[in-house]
Amino acid sequence: MLGLPGIPDVIDLGDALILAGLPTSHLLVLEVTSDGRAALHVPRLEVGQGLTTAIAVLVADELDARLADVDVPLSDGRPDLLFNQLTGASNSVRSLYDPVRAAAAAARARLVTAAARRWSLPADSLRTADSAVLAPDGRRASYGELAADAAKVAVPAVPATPKSPDQQRLVGRPTGRIDARDIVTGKAKYAGDLTVPGAVPCVVARPTTLNGTLKSLDASVARAMPGVLGVVRIPTGVAVLAETFDQALKARDALLTTWNPGPVAALSTADIKARLRAAHAPFLIPPLLTQYVDAEFDFAFVNHAPMEVLTAVADVRPGRAELWFAAQTPIVAQQTIAAELGLPQDAVTVHVVRGGGSFGRRLFFDAALEAAQVSRAAGRPVKLMWTRNDDMRHGRMRPASHHRIRATHALGQVLTYEHRAATVATDFRHGLGEALTAAGFNLSVAGLSLAQAFFLLSEKNPYDVGIPTQLLAEVPLEVPTGSWRSVYSGTVRVADEIMMDELARRLGQDPVAFRRARLRGAAARAVLDKAAEAGRWGRPMPPGQAQGIGYHDEHGSRVAYLVELDATDPKQPRVTRAVVAADVGRVVNPRGLEAQLTGALIDGISVVLQAGIHIDHGAVREGSYADFRYARQRQSPPSVEIHLLPPTGSPGGAGELGVPAASAAVANAYARATGTSPRSFPIDF
């Protein structure tokens, strides 16, 4: 039975963001300097995903430069880029692949032209290699020697055409991170490492419940403590400035505060679950004359928990402000901070600094806004840091959600498939709405919320399951939420993949064969087949151990995970092996992609088996990695095997791709190993 294509089969969220950025996609800055360096200023954020390495590979390949000669600094906030400086939706390489190559090809054409003029030779007789232009007679001019003359070339004498795939020498070749040595030796600078003249350490005392407000403050003891330089009230709490962070933290603990309860102080996890369950629209198809499978699933709140806590440096002076922080949305941050300070936008400079992890957390700029407020009030530069506890208990989270699914079937075929997803409302106020409008999606005319637009552009069922429907219901709660890696797909598609296993069991079919018969397209089936073949799907397993499979396609890419799980002790299950097959189109750096897919596996293990957030009377219970139980080495598989399929087109997205399939594979393996079908995640919560 042929299933109906979804909106993301025609245009997905990444396509929409690329469309929004097209008018300014050519405004990249590529410099070739007199010392022979090529620097591509990247209008995206590097948060450990290897983006700068991928961009450096593209530049070096297209420019015929040595990779060691390429620098990839991060661009400051550039309002002229409009919607082309947002890092998200697994879209960075996907959107920059052609513009970066075009910029490098244009630079190469000008360098060749400059050499041709210098030597009075036909430009088409010259070639480029190893950061130099070479003449047939053996003459050689380095790019550094030619840079000044090349800058004067208005019309190149050779076509500025990017290379075809068969001409690429670096793209597709496994490459180590260009910044690996800097990271491990401490040379790489994060916001907390920066030395900005006069910037003093700062921390904030925060409410006892989410979004609570200050009721009373006695700071007399704190002000008298060694090293304390000031105590400042801001909307989100009380900031303490000191000569060292240790002094600031001790003084913060000495503040005498009382707090008004936040707007969700009456709610705990069970109350929120009840509200989610009550939010669903009824199913369209009553199971009167057909057989059916019903299932419900709960997914907990999940913290982003990046290794580097939020840190921002701010220097606010009369008439201007300058900030340094890891920003996925620097233009929106610049606009918001300017409005808060009462300054024109061009009076606020945002320096984008590399981040140590994000997973969507740095789409928002909470620390930077607070730092600006404190700097203005204190009249001096500050370096404000959120502690781990700050971000766990007051930072943004993946919203909790509840899913209700009904599939009807007859004669071995799925006839209808209805998925109702109810989530705590996700905050998308980071420029997404404006970008979608610029791409031609008039949300007001369509009557769609930002969340519904995101849902429609990202969520689809990749299988032929008769008539599929997917609906999103949002429960508005004043809880700090945000996009967590794979956003809706991290729950919606996990529930779908669990249902595929259960439908296969109900119909007496093998889970892989059941999926394969219903996947749309040869590329999808090839990925599933590769994972099943390489993972020896169906091989005999000891009692209490089992295999699980999960498939997902999004961002123009496809992936399947096969995991083996040991649940001999059901309270301490462990994934012992994982086999991954992926088709993401043309792979720029296979080593970086393998790292992304491995990271997604650890995410899936964590949020399915043990990592989640509880709400107790409006307060987050978990406060650190000690009780927010992300997978450690002992919970990680000793064997991970990754197979990248030959490219089927231009690059797709990969940063978030693996999480839904990995999560589903773990859940399905647990069900097969224990004989139980988990309905609430994480399982050990």
Largest sheet, if any?
Answer: 7 strands, mixed
Helix content: 25-40%
Give me the count of strands. 28
What oligomeric state best describes the polypeptide chains here? single chain
> What is the first-to-last residue Cα distance?
39 Å
Global structural class: alpha+beta
Shape: globular
How many H/I helices? 20
Q: What is the residue-mean pLDDT, rounded to a whole number?
A: 96
Low-confidence stretches: none
Strand arrangement across the biggest beta sheet? 9-10-7-17-14-15-16
The radius of gyration is: 27 Å
Domain Aldehyde oxidase/xanthine dehydrogenase a/b hammerhead: 185-263
Pfam family, one: MoCoBD_1
Protein name: Molybdopterin cofactor-binding domain-containing protein
Write the layout of secondary structure elements.
Layout lengths: L6 H4 L2 H9 L7 E4 L5 E4 L9 H13 L6 E2 L20 H28 L7 E3 L2 E3 L5 E3 H8 L29 H6 L14 E6 L7 E6 L1 H4 L4 E7 L2 E6 L2 H10 L1 E5 L8 H9 L13 E9 L2 E2 L7 E7 L2 E6 L4 H12 L6 E5 L13 H13 L3 E4 L2 H7 L2 E2 L2 E10 L2 E12 L7 H7 L4 H4 L3 H9 L8 E9 L13 H18 L4 H6 L5 H13 L10 E10 L2 E10 L7 E10 L6 H20 L5 E2 L2 E2 L18 E6 L13 H17 L5 E2 L4
Parallel strand pairs: 2-3, 7-17, 12-28, 15-16, 20-21, 24-27
Antiparallel strand pairs: 1-2, 4-5, 5-6, 7-10, 8-11, 9-10, 12-19, 13-18, 14-15, 14-17, 19-20, 22-23, 23-24, 25-26
InterPro entries: Ald_Oxase/Xan_DH_a/b, Ald_Oxase/Xan_DH_a/b_sf, AldOxase/xan_DH_MoCoBD1, AldOxase/xan_DH_MoCoBD2, AldOxase/xan_DH_Mopterin-bd_sf, N-heterocyclic_Hydroxylase, OxRdtase_Mopterin-bd_su_IorB
Pfam families: MoCoBD_1, MoCoBD_2
Protein name: Molybdopterin cofactor-binding domain-containing protein
